[in-house]
Amino acid sequence: MTTQRAYHHGNLRQALLEAAERTVRERGAGDLSLRELAREVGVSHGAPRRHFPDRQALLDALAEAGFERLGSELREALREAGPGFVGRLHAMAAAYVRFAVDDSTLLELMFAGKHREGAAALEQAAEQAFSPIMELIEQGQAERFLEPGDPERIGLVLFATVQGIASLVTGQMVRADQVGELLADSIAHFLRGSRGVA
Amino acid sequence: MTTQRAYHHGNLRQALLEAAERTVRERGAGDLSLRELAREVGVSHGAPRRHFPDRQALLDALAEAGFERLGSELREALREAGPGFVGRLHAMAAAYVRFAVDDSTLLELMFAGKHREGAAALEQAAEQAFSPIMELIEQGQAERFLEPGDPERIGLVLFATVQGIASLVTGQMVRADQVGELLADSIAHFLRGSRGVA
DNA sequence: AGGAGAAAGTAGTCATGGACAACAATGTAG
DNA sequence: CTACATTGTTGTCCATGACTACTTTCTCCT
Question: If both were cysteines, with which of A137, A164, A179, A192 could B163 make a disulfide (CB 3.0 to 4.6 Å apart)?
């Protein structure tokens, strides 16, 4: 069996997604062209349509994969961190921001994709990706680092903070060398602001 | 003088920007088409090129106008709020989030535009828009609501928080009816976390 | 005035891309 | 081994952004 293409690619869908992710990383989602992708993968311009009804479907799939990877990385960060809440908080926030820096265009795409309706799978994937945040909040409450109450509410505050840092980074409002400091400051703020009002 | 078009439109640049802003608001920046704009304004498809060398230039101009309006609205919010720091903080954050909700696609465009290089005017406009945040921080420090130190550092923490809420809103991670609560919680966190560690 | 240029619009063209349809090759199940 | 479903291919249509050459209008200078 040589390298030459069979009529059936074998795993076109996956190949397209991989090529697409590369392109998005290098040139952003706006520049993504189905025809160019088809050429890269060595397939005719109509082929992708068998796997993605239109361009947006491909982008949605990409976003979904992105959420899955983000979720994995957050979980991985928690697993590698020690058991202590504060360390885990730092680890997770850092992991999130790292993702935002390394895959800024993908993260943009992930958030943009959610605007569209009929993206149930995306909603699902996003929820999965962010669940580690909620788990962490609950640990923080159990260990009295965070005030008691609806974890969702406190989680949103943390989530907003971290996502805000990510936005500032991808929007180039902060320089790369300021990120570590900003992250540390924000977490410190969050923690100090979170011990019960008493 | 009737309504019929003269050869020279008179104020094509402005007309294009206005039509573009409408379209962006209604359908997002991705759907913006120079040719369609030209048709709307009643001018030939090549005309916009006299005012914007390419599509991106139009988007940049739109983003720049967006920053100017955002800056105005933040300043306006401060002006309408009383003199007290906490009230002003709430007012400004609310104004920012309101902008993010009402003009989510524009805000996205504003942040996306900054990725591109050679956008000196944009940088400038962005800086202007965000300067009220810094002023407010300095007031907060003067009135001892905020710890002393580099205002830029503390400002970034606040900015990240507010921008994070905006991101969550535009990314549909929070429902509209949760925004007020999230905003209040976040500001409370910020304030509690900001009184000197002592 | 009036005439030279600059400014602003028009018309035509090209290449690229997304969407779609008709058809061909391959895989699969009965 | 044959019918049918999958997966690719080719060809086409249309919209768009970018570019060029040409035309109309404005303005400013003498």
Answer: A164
